[in-house]
Structure formats: C-alpha cells, structure tokens
Amino acid sequence: MIQQSTPGDWQERYHSALLGVFGSPQLCLDHGYGCIVVDSDGNEYLDLLGGIAVNALGYAHPAWVKAVTHQAETLAHVSNFFTTRPQLDLAEKMLSLAKAPEGSAVFFSNSGTEANEAAIKICLARKNGRIIALDHAFHGRTLGALALTHKAAYRQPFGPSAIDVTFVAPDDHGTLCHELDKGDVSAVFVEPVQGEAGVVPLSREYLRQVRELTVCHDALMVVDEVQCGMGRTGRWFAHQGAHITPDVMTTAKALGGGFPIGATVTFGPHVSGVLTAGQHGTTFGGNALACAVACAVISTIESDDLLAHVRKIGALMSTALQQCHPSITQVRGSGALLGIQFDSDIAGDLVVAARDAGFIVNAANPSTLRLAPPYVLTEAQAQSFVDALPGLIDSVRS
Ligand SMILES: *Cc1c(COP(=O)(O)O)cnc(C)c1O
C-alpha cells in the first residue's frame, strides 16, 4: 500500500527505499499541466527540462491522456508473437518521418539505451569490427551502449567491454579518415547534437563527411537521435539538416512524450536484412499502449504545427539569451534543445537558484545549462525565463 506522504518526509523515504544512483531528488513532484509542474508542497515550477527532453507535449496533455486511456481500455500488451494496429501505424509513420527508402524497417524497444543496443547488434552482426564513437558521446547505460559512452567515470567501474571502441574528436575529419583507413571499422556512432556533452551540435559538413567516409570504408553510420530527434530541434530528425541518409537511426526520449518507448530505424535492405528471426527481441518493446501513445504525440506535433513553434521559441530564446548577460559566452543548439555556456562553473548553483525562483533547468556540465522544454512552451513562458536569468546569474556570482 502506498503511504500518504506528509510534507518534507519524502527525502527520508526516498533514501531508505531507493537505490542511490541518482543522488538526492531535488523535489517530490505531484502533478502538472502544460509546462507547469507542481511539487508536493504546492509550489509551481516552469519546467524547461521536460523530464530530460521527454515531455514533448508537457504534462497531462489532453491528446496524450486520451491516447493512454483509450488504448488501456482496448488492449495494452500482447507480446511480439502478435502485432497490433498501433504498432503498424507507428512503424509506418516513423519510416515516413525519417524519409526512409524502400526496404527500411523499425524495431521498437522501451528506452534509448535499448534502441542503441539493437543498433550495435546490427552493426556487429554485419561486420564484426571496431566501433568508432565520439569524444563526449553519451549513448546509454546498458553495457553495449555504455561502451560507446565517452565519460570514463560511467564506464570504468564495470571493466573492459567486449566491444572494441575507439573514440575520436568530433568535427575532426583527419582522425576519422585515419581510423577508417585501417579497414576494420564496423560502424561510426554520432549524436547529431551531443546532448549530455552540453548541447554541442556537430557541423553539417562533418555529418556529411561521416556519411561519405563510412560508405567508402564499408562501415555503417548510426545516428543517435535519442535526445535530438522527434522534432526537438525543429525538424523531425536533426541529421536531416545535413541532407544525409544514415544506415541506422535510434530515437526514444520525446517519442512517447513520457510513455517509455524507443525505436531503431534501419535504412534500406542492406541493414534491415542483417538480423533474422530469433537474433534479437524484447518482451515489452512495441506494445500497443506505447505505440498508440507515440502515434498520438506525433499526430499532435503535426496537427498543432509544433515543429514551426519549436523553431520560433528556439530562435527567440537563443537570441535573447545571448544578449542577456555578459557571463554567457555562447548559446548552442536550436529549437527546444539549447545549451547556455557560461564563462565559469556556475551551472550547478544556477540550477538551485532557478528552482528557488520557480524554474526547472539542468546543468549538462559545470559551465553549461541545458534547456529541453516541452514543445508547447509559450513565448510568454520562454520570455519569463529570459527575464529572470540575469538576476539569477548575479545572485550566484556575488
Ligand atoms: C538519454 C540518451 C540515451 C539513453 O536513453 P535512456 O532512455 O536513458 O536509456 C542514449 N543516447 C542519447 C543521445 C541520450 O540523450
């Protein structure tokens, strides 16, 4: 039975019941509407993080609630011995949004890291060689995806990986050429916008170079759009800005707008045909409930023209933020994925100050704030943060 929480006792209950991998939760949240979330003491916050780039439609969006409710009342889970209409609808829709050619396919899972595990298995099954990933890359926490994650502190406690990974500097054509020339590379994994690294977009030129070089060297190009995909940058997928077709794409976070789902898209028969029946699987992945909700998220983004809105609020915020305080040295990213770079390590203190002032933001690293708000953020809400930020910066610097 769930105990009724009294104000303030949640911290103690958390630490006596939950594994300590996330540190201390900042708040105990109770409910939300739109971009506003309310804690268990009744305080309201403007959420500019959206559950880490997940809640594309904000909280309790009517279309999302309706999709969950309707599908739950109909049929939620059936196992992958069977298919369902929502699964077929979502797969076809994903292929069309991804502009995937004939012979492309989708594999559904429950998270970003699982979407990447499927991608890794496809690459290694086709050609068992090294995988190249980028410095500062983040691909997830399960052992395969973790091997491609750059930060040593995340990886090293768990010993050497069975996957042979080489990290190279992003946007460095020479090093990539040099590694691919050795001939043993299975795949190159890139995040078109490196999210956890502090919102660092790769140049379009580099994305095109990765595409050309992997083709020349019989390696696959995998784009990890777990964070930057599903409309977050103002286009359905960030790599589309470079006008390239990857071999594999992974996505998750915003796909279900808060309902867990991940997807791995294989572009064309040369990758879609690699794994055969029995070579990969999942119990929960692609269930009717998750797929119906993802369909509703995509339909709402389309019907409410949210990609155009995301581009508009992104441009508005990035222009205003660049000019709002001298300690801001750069604003990176676009749409609903922005990194605010400061000239010193104040991001951690700013998260606390912002929260006390009613804004939820995140420190992607000690000198960068990350904003990944719901796509339904209004211009007035965006402006309220821009207006408050200079005062917050001054308060943490004094
Ligand atoms: C969040 C993230 C992942 C991992 O997704 P999970 O759902 O947490 O497993 C993988 N790649 C990128 C780029 C991410 O931002």
From TrEMBL:
- EC number in record: 2.6.1.11
Q: Which Gene3D superfamilies match?
A: Aspartate Aminotransferase, domain 1, Type I PLP-dependent aspartate aminotransferase-like (Major domain)
Source superkingdom: Bacteria
Tell me which UniProt keywords the record has, alphabetically: Aminotransferase, Pyridoxal phosphate, Transferase
Q: Which GO terms describe its molecular function?
A: identical protein binding; N2-acetyl-L-ornithine:2-oxoglutarate 5-aminotransferase activity; pyridoxal phosphate binding
The record ties this protein, via SUPFAM superfamilies, to: PLP-dependent transferases
| Classification via InterPro entries | Aminotrans_3, Aminotrans_3_PPA_site, Class-III_PLP-dep_AT, PyrdxlP-dep_Trfase, PyrdxlP-dep_Trfase_major, PyrdxlP-dep_Trfase_small
**Enzyme class (EC, first level):** transferase
Cite the Pfam families for this sequence. Answer: Aminotran_3
Q: Which cofactor does it need?
A: pyridoxal 5'-phosphate
NCBIfam families for the chain: PRK03244.1
Family label? Belongs to the class-III pyridoxal-phosphate-dependent aminotransferase family.
- Identification of the protein by name: Acetylornithine transaminase
Tell me what organism the protein belongs to. Answer: Cutibacterium porci
| Species classification | Bacteria, Bacillati, Actinomycetota, Actinomycetes, Propionibacteriales
